[in-house]
Specification:
This protein has eight helices and seven strands, in the order ββαααααβαβαββαβ. It is an alpha/beta fold. The strands form two sheets. A five-stranded parallel beta sheet has the order 5-4-3-6-7. Strands 1-2 form a two-stranded antiparallel sheet. A hairpin with a 6-residue loop joins strand 1 and strand 2.
Length: 226
């Protein structure tokens, strides 16, 4: 299942809109499967909250101070997890439901595995569609944040591969460009899907891989072919 959201994005200051036609850059067979998405009320609420935080002195100052003090000792991801900053947004709950049920409804017993769930903010927009939700996260502090946010089946980078359990949907949202071996991860996710399962991917374009781990050797990171 290919999902390519197209957002006519209302910028935070509300004065401009932004349109991007993926048909100009995608092969025809992919462009035809695009499902356009536009700013809905939940997305607008998120954008407004970002703008409000940006315009507020204390939250902005606390972000700068915490990052400056903690960054020499922790990765940016760890700092974000510790102080609760840098939350990610992909789509609204309604938009996720539209994508995942565009062909057929999800079964009542549907299960979700969210790869690289971070603090769980995006997973929370998905979880109401599933009977069981599991998450993975490589960062120890973010795993604590996931527990704090109510998730109880939390895997590290490899424990989700154990056993024969398969999932109705596996989501991997803005992770492929942040892992050491994206091709291997794709193969692993495919192997853990049910026979008619769905793989939900999000990827920032243009593709620009980066590993938030000072110990990572650049030459040890594989890349997706262009």
């Amino acid at each position: 299942m290919l999902v390519l959201p197209l957002l006519s994005l209302i910028l935070c200051h509300g004065a401009q809109t932004f349109d991007y036609d993926y048909g100009l850059t995608l092969p025809e067979e992919l462009s035809e499967r695009r499902q356009p998405m536009y700013v809905d009320s939940e997305t607008k609420t998120f954008l407004d909250s970002c703008q409000k935080r940006f315009e507020s002195f204390l939250p902005t100052a606390s972000d700068v101070v915490s990052l400056s003090l903690l960054r020499p000792f922790l990765s940016t991801t760890s700092v974000n997890g510790l102080v609760g900053r840098g939350r990610m947004y992909i789509l609204s709950s309604v938009q996720f439901r539209k994508l995942l049920t565009s062909k057929q409804p999800l079964p009542a017993s549907a299960t979700l595995l969210d790869i690289g769930a971070g603090d769980g903010g995006v997973t929370q927009r998905l979880q109401d569609m599933f009977q069981q939700v599991e998450v993975t996260e490589t960062n120890t502090i973010m795993r604590w944040r996931l527990w704090w946010n109510g998730f109880r089946t939390i895997h590290d980078e490899s424990s989700w591969l154990n056993g024969d359990h398969r999932y109705t949907v596996i989501s991997c949202l803005n992770v492929l460009d942040r892992c050491k071996n994206p091709l291997q991860l794709l193969q692993q996710m495919y192997s853990k899907l049910e026979s008619n399962g769905l793989l939900l991917l999000a990827l920032v374009l243009p593709y620009s891989p980066f590993i938030d781990d000072p110990s990572t050797i650049p030459n040890s990171v594989s890349h997706l072919s262009s």
